[in-house]
């Protein structure tokens, strides 16, 4: 483990901006990839790429089904393709992801902004609490939800080096920074961000920062929490979780997603199969969201450091 | 790329189309399920595509640089497989394995299982978009290669088809050709009863496509239509091929029940083969599967 990353605290770029800028940074070193967008380039961060590489950017209009299958076809001409839209609109083409992309194992990367409740005032129709579950269920899909702008940059390059279908979540709000320097990113590898012995907090996306904050609060109460960044939900890093839970004996999962089928689901499966231990899930409890500022929604729906810390105390009390 | 140099005599194409009809029927018989109606309506179009337009000699594609064909109406794959075998892209012995476990020929086309198949299809509308992506990819690479997609008529009810149509015209992809196997029937009944398509030519024209309407069983008309496609400089082309579902087998023609998925009895097969010039004595080799042991032509 490198020097233990802590919550830097300062607010950085949103993950979508980080993604858009990393496409520009990677464009010269990876001269083949192209970017498709469905009339939301300003929202997905790909306007940066469009500006610098207009000939490698294809506007697909508001037609996600065509965009996804089209990407599968372009990939057969040896062009790695990024498909970008809002998470919820990508769901409109889940069957296209399944058949055109995943079944044919095409080198298509779907990168979706506006995940979870993070969308805020646009309300439930634009929020997306189901994507991680749906993409995780498709055979052969890699599913990634990074936590920090520098991690997004590292994950974007890792995706380019990987020949196969990937779904990645970015994010809309300014992200809390976790890493001082660009981290190593290996698809399928979780990372212990903070070591602890009483409970494992395993999180993805924006809930990683919340979990680090929760761990700091818990430390003040004499509870030692280990924080694991499970940026890859699939393939899931069973070994890292198993090592952690062997030490701590209790787990909290935390995600900006329905508690069913996403990270909580992946953690529950992993624990049940490899190392049974009590689990508490922090996430949206099988309901739709509503309009409101992200912070207000986080409080109402329990996506806060306090909620993670409370879940940690509950799960510790459940240890045999 | 101009129109391919080698132009086959229509008698030659006719002979191959007839062989493909016989093989498709035998394949569906041995598979104990499959879609005969839409396979038979597509055979003539597929024959011209493979023997005149694509002229692929090897299915072990080593790079991306080849003309493309996507069967978007994936359920007609028995005809596609049969034509590909006649073109030397698939061992004839594989045809007997259609829809069987651990074999190459899936019930709907799949890239991962069958070498010459360019896209996994079977959910209508997707193959058309995938083919569009190939055409855009060639355009992006500055390579002049044609891309063909075959769609069913019922398939045109999918919204994705019109997303694709809009995109291809917007980007002026003149090397992209849609072929509609317009047999007027879909799974449950006639198109006109399920969800009317007319005026079909006007729909495509209004989407910015060059439109040709032909008899999809007239081999010379099919050849000519592809010839006109190669001359088009500004627009994608759609060939609306008027066909007959079950074409070539009288008792199946224009009857929705033969859409599929259909189990053919021994007599069904022998009667169908008789319509394709196979005597009942010769039919024994089709019933036994011996016909699949023949060498590729």
Automatic annotation (TrEMBL), chain A:
| UniProt superkingdom | Bacteria
Residue stretches making up the Transketolase-like pyrimidine-binding domain? 13-178
Entry-linked Pfam families: Transket_pyr (PF02779), Transketolase_C (PF02780)
Assigned keywords, A-Z: Thiamine pyrophosphate
Signal peptide position in this chain?
A: none
Cofactor entry: thiamine diphosphate
Give the UniProt family note: Belongs to the transketolase family.
What is the name of this protein?
Transketolase family protein
Which organism is the protein's source? Acanthopleuribacter pedis
From TrEMBL, chain B:
Q: Which domain of life is it from?
A: Bacteria
Q: Which PANTHER family match?
A: TRANSKETOLASE, TRANSKETOLASE N-TERMINAL SECTION-RELATED
An example Pfam family from this entry, by short name, is Transketolase_N
Q: Where does the Transketolase N-terminal domain start and stop, copy by copy?
A: 19-274
Quick one: signal sequence residues?
none
- Mind telling me which InterPro entries this protein's record contains? THDP-binding (IPR029061), Transketolase_N (IPR005474)
Supply the source organism for this entry: Acanthopleuribacter pedis
Name assigned to this protein = Transketolase
The record's annotation in SUPFAM superfamilies points to: Thiamin diphosphate-binding fold (THDP-binding) (SSF52518)
């Amino acid at each position: 483990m490198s020097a233990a990353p802590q919550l830097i605290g300062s607010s950085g770029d949103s993950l979508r901006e980080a993604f858009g800028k990393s496409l520009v940074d990677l464009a010269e070193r990876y001269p083949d990839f192209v970017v498709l967008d469905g009339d939301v380039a300003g929202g997905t961060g790909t306007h940066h790429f469009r500006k610098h590489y207009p000939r490698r950017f294809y506007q697909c209009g508001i037609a996600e089904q065509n965009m996804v299958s089209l990407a599968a076809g372009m990939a057969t001409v040896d062009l790695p393709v990024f498909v970008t839209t809002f998470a919820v609109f990508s769901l409109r083409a889940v069957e296209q992801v399944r058949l055109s992309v995943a079944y044919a194992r095409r080198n298509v990367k779907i990168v979706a902004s506006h995940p979870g409740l993070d969308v805020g005032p646009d309300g439930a129709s634009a929020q997306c609490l189901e994507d991680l579950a749906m993409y995780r269920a498709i055979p052969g899909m890699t599913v990634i939800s990074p936590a920090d702008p520098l991690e997004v940059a590292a994950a974007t390059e890792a995706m380019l080096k990987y020949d196969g279908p990937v779904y990645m979540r970015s994010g809309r709000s300014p992200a809390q920074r976790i890493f001082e320097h660009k981290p190593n990113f290996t698809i399928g590898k979780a990372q212990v961000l903070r070591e602890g012995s009483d409970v494992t907090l395993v999180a993805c996306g924006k809930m990683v920062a919340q979990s680090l904050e929760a761990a700091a609060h818990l430390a003040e109460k004499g509870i030692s929490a280990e924080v694991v960044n499970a940026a890859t939900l699939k393939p899931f890093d069973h070994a890292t979780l198993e090592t952690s839970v062997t030490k701590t004996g209790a787990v909290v999962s935390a995600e900006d997603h329905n508690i069913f089928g996403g990270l909580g689901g992946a953690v529950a499966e992993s624990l049940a199969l490899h190392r049974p231990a009590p689990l508490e899930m922090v996430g949206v409890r099988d309901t739709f969201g509503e309009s409101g500022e992200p912070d207000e929604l986080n409080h109402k729906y329990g996506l806060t450091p306090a909620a993670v810390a409370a879940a940690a105390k509950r799960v510790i009390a459940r240890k045999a | 790329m101009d129109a391919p140099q080698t132009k086959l005599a229509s008698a030659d194409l006719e002979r191959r189309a007839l062989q493909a009809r016989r093989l498709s029927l035998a394949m569906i018989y041995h598979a104990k399920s499959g879609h005969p109606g839409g396979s038979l309506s597509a055979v003539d179009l597929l024959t011209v595509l493979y023997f005149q337009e694509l002229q692929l000699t090897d299915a072990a594609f080593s790079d991306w640089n080849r003309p493309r064909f996507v069967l978007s109406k994936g359920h007609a794959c028995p005809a596609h497989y049969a034509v590909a075998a006649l073109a030397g892209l698939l061992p004839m012995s594989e045809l007997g394995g259609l829809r069987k476990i651990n074999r190459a020929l899936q019930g709907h086309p799949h890239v991962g299982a069958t070498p010459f198949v360019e896209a996994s299809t079977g959910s209508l509308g997707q193959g058309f978009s995938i083919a569009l992506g190939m055409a855009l990819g060639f355009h992006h690479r500055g390579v002049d290669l044609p891309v063909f997609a075959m769609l069913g008529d019922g398939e045109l009810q999918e919204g994705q088809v019109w997303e694709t149509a809009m995109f291809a015209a917007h980007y002026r992809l003149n090397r992209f050709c849609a072929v509609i196997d317009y047999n007027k029937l879909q799974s449950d009944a006639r198109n006109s009863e399920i969800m009317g398509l007319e005026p079909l030519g006007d729909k495509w024209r209004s989407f910015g496509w060059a439109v040709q309407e032909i008899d999809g069983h007239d081999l010379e008309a099919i050849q000519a239509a592809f010839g006109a496609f190669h001359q088009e400089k500004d627009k994608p082309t759609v060939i609306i091929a008027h066909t007959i579902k079950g074409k070539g087998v009288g008792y199946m023609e224009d009857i929705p029940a033969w859409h599929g998925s259909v189990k053919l009895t021994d007599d069904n097969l022998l009667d169908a083969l008789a319509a394709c010039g196979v005597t009942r004595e010769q039919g024994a080799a089709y019933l036994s599967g011996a016909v699949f042991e023949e060498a590729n032509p």
